[in-house]
Specification:
Blueprint: H1 14-27, H2 35-53, H3 59-69, H4 74-84, H5 89-117, H6 145-158, H7 163-182, H8 188-204, E1 219-220, E2 235-240, H9 257-268, E3 273-277, H10 283-292, E4 296-301, H11 303-316, E5 320-324, H12 330-334, H13 340-349, E6 352-362, E7 373-375, E8 378-382, H14 383-398, H15 400-414, E9 418-422, E10 425-436, E11 457-463, H16 470-479, E12 488-493, E13 496-499, E14 505-509, E15 512-516, E16 519-532
Helix pairs in contact: 3-7, 4-5, 5-6, 5-8, 6-7, 6-8, 7-8, 10-11, 14-15, 15-16
GO molecular function: kinase activity; undecaprenyl-diphosphatase activity
Domain DAGKc: 283-363
Organism: Actinomadura citrea
Length: 540
């Protein structure tokens, strides 16, 4: 009898086939020619398997939706919009910096990174179907674009915003990054690379836009305690109801910032005396009369109103409490006060320091001492005064920001440099900027300082020769980068004389226009103003 001993062959099971196919695809998910990459690839796949097989109660429903909401940056641009309409300058800066960082990180990942590495997406047979609620991506896996955008936005926000905002944004960014692995869209290595690129993009924004310190330093008052009452007794508050972007009472239904600040002062400091300054009122007179009877002079308004109050406070040597109520509020932001609530807190804590005050005064003897005009932020000569003049005429009809844009365009078409003698040297000046203290930012109107007590004037000029660089000079105002403008000069001094051979001098002082005699002197009153600040004054 003949026995057939032929070999029996068994077809592999379906699970074995699927496993072999998965291993083959994962083997091609990363270049295998470099031993280090092979080891990193094995570690990456092992970590992915651990996350894919994990069961985190409740997150199967949360993380997939969060991941999908982050598609195309929708989550981050929504957050930026919410921060932008919050009304706080630090949050607006944080939102803008985060958006700029995304604009840098996203092309770096999607155009450069993914095309350079061409890594395959993970095989998702270990990921429960409940987590996969979207169409599987077809683009390359490395690096993760979602993670890069998340890290870029979170880093940009962290450079500007307070911890109360930065920490939740960072936690959300971390959750989005983890969700990309948890839902099977990326290997952990893809996510880590994306986070690194995004963080570098956020930090890199400081190269072109330096982040500002939250509070400028002031010197200790050093002259005894300031009288502070919890109910506000002894406080006289001058409230300029015309301040802010909606100076026209008929402009809208929302209350102006000055009105909100007034309501909070009345509620929190019921014993304080309130002086309401209606549109068209004499700010200097109101502040001078209030300072006569005040233990603390409070002022609600923009930088122009604060300047008038500072002059009154200097004359009576009373401390100044600045409550933001204008459009820009540069000085109140410099002392760390961005809201009326922070101003009230600074008052109750009695944190008073001394800040410099700059001034401009006519050189002519007949002008008298009373002609001295103080400024706390900036004074400008040249094309900027034309921009302000045109903006003021337009803003009641179309709003401050559209008016600024229209004014810049018209100035671009019609302006000419002014002839000046600066400390005895003849110059054709497009723009002259004089800052009360040294500014750390660039631009025609820099907005932040590290100190308010350095005793210096920060002078920056754009001058020209025979041909005026009109476009570049006006662009310097709008874009804020004077250093890229031909004819730019800057220096520090404690005093400066300016003479206009052609007649009266037009000056924008803390945003307020004035006409001065042809010959003036800029100078300083070092540490002359006592002012409340949100942080304790420091020495040095």
């Amino acid at each position: 009898m003949r026995v057939n001993h032929s070999r029996r062959t068994c077809a592999p099971s379906r699970s074995v086939t699927r496993r072999r196919s998965r291993q083959a695809q994962e083997h091609r998910a990363w270049p295998q020619s470099v031993p280090l990459l092979r080891r990193l690839g094995r570690m990456d796949r092992w970590a992915f398997d651990q996350v894919a097989s994990a069961r985190l109660r409740g997150l199967e429903y949360v993380l997939p939706r969060l991941s999908r909401f982050a598609d195309h940056g929708v989550l981050w641009f929504s957050a930026a919009g919410a921060m932008g309409i919050a009304g706080r300058p630090r949050l607006r800066r944080a939102a803008l910096r985060g958006a700029i960082a995304i604009a840098v990180a996203s092309p770096a990942v999607n155009i450069v990174g993914k095309q350079a590495f061409r890594r395959r997406r993970p095989v998702v047979d270990l990921v429960p179907p409940i987590r996969i609620r979207w169409k599987l991506p077809t683009s390359h896996a490395f690096p993760s674009g979602h993670s890069a955008s998340a890290a870029a936005f979170a880093t940009g926000v962290a450079l500007e915003a307070p911890a109360a905002v930065g920490v939740p944004v960072a936690a959300t960014a971390a959750a989005v990054a983890f969700s990309r692995v948890y839902t099977g869209a990326h290997y952990p290595g893809d996510v880590m690379a994306g986070l690194g690129i995004g963080a570098l993009a956020g930090i890199g924004t400081r190269l072109v836009w330096p982040s500002r310190p939250p509070v400028a330093r002031v010197a200790p008052a050093g002259d005894g305690n300031v009288r502070v009452a919890q109910d506000g007794r002894g406080v006289v508050a001058v409230v300029n109801l015309a301040s802010g972007p909606s100076a026209d009472p008929e402009a809208g239904i929302l209350p102006r910032r000055s009105e909100i600040a007034l309501a909070l002062i009345e509620a929190e400091l019921p014993a304080a005396e309130i002086v309401r300054l209606e549109p068209g009122g004499d700010v200097d007179k109101a502040c001078a009369e209030a300072a006569e009877r005040a233990d603390v002079l409070a002022v609600v308004g923009g930088d122009g109103t604060v300047g008038a109050a500072a002059r009154a406070a200097l004359g009576r040597d009373v401390p100044l409490l600045v409550v933001p109520g204008g459009t820009f509020d540069h000085f109140s932001r410099a002392v760390g006060v961005e809201t009326a609530a922070q101003a009230i807190r600074a008052y109750r804590e009695g944190r008073v320091g001394r800040a410099d005050v700059s001034y401009v005064t006519p050189l002519s003897a007949e002008a008298g001492d009373g002609a001295e005009q103080v400024f706390l932020n900036t004074a400008s000569i040249g094309v900027y005064t034309e921009v302000v003049d045109r903006r003021v005429r337009l803003e009641r009809r179309i709003g401050k920001w559209p008016a600024l844009a229209v004014a810049a365009v018209r100035t671009l078409r019609h302006s000419e440099p002014v002839e000046l003698m600066v400390d005895g040297r003849r110059r054709r000046v497009w723009l002259a900027f004089v800052g009360n203290g040294v500014f750390g930012s660039w631009g025609a109107a820099p907005t932040w300082r590290e100190r308010l007590d350095d005793g210096q004037l920060d002078v920056r000029m754009v001058t020209t020769g025979s041909r005026a660089p009109r476009v570049r000079a006006v662009a310097a105002i709008v874009a804020g980068h004077l250093r890229v403008t031909p004819g730019y000069r800057s220096w520090r001094t404690t005093g400066m004389e300016v003479v206009s051979p052609t007649g009266d001098l037009r000056l924008a002082r803390d945003g307020e226009l004035a006409s001065l005699p042809p010959a003036v002197r800029f100078g300083k009153h070092p540490r002359a103003l006592r002012v409340f600040t949100i942080h304790a004054p420091v020495t040095g």
